[in-house]
Specification:
- By secondary structure, the chain is mainly alpha-helical.
- The chain has one domain.
- It has five helices and two strands, in the order αββαααα.
- The protein has a two-stranded antiparallel sheet with strand order 1-2.
- The protein is elongated, with a radius of gyration of 15 Å.
Length: about 150
Amino acid sequence: MLRALAISSILLAVAACGGKATPATSTTTSEHAGGEHAAGGHEHDFPAEVAAFHDKLSPLWHADPGAARTDSTCTATGELDQLAEGVQNAAAPANVDSAAWSQKVTELREALTRLGEGCLGTDHTSFDADFTAVHDAFHHLIALLPQPEHHG
């Protein structure tokens, strides 16, 4: 059951890739290695605040696991939280239920708080779980965005 939920979440995240930008959005093109973005470069049709958060999170998430990734991510928690605050302060995107959007943004901010707390000190035993929670919360948020039409 949990595996099906995880696969479903990944499929939703992958479905969020592609499409054309509209004036209210920012199209972000990124190169990713591995994970759900293994196909290489892709575009996202995100509102500007969401794109800014994605652009900071993505290279951290896709970095090789280890001390350097942990250190870089822990150093970036303040900036990630500021970017998430920008998402929270912006209006919910058109065609997205504002209550659901607000809830998912709150969950993202809570996950970031746990990550930041886990980064304090030198014992980073909860880092992987905390960082995964941030990544998953972000994907749950973007799953609320309207899916672009694919032509082909």
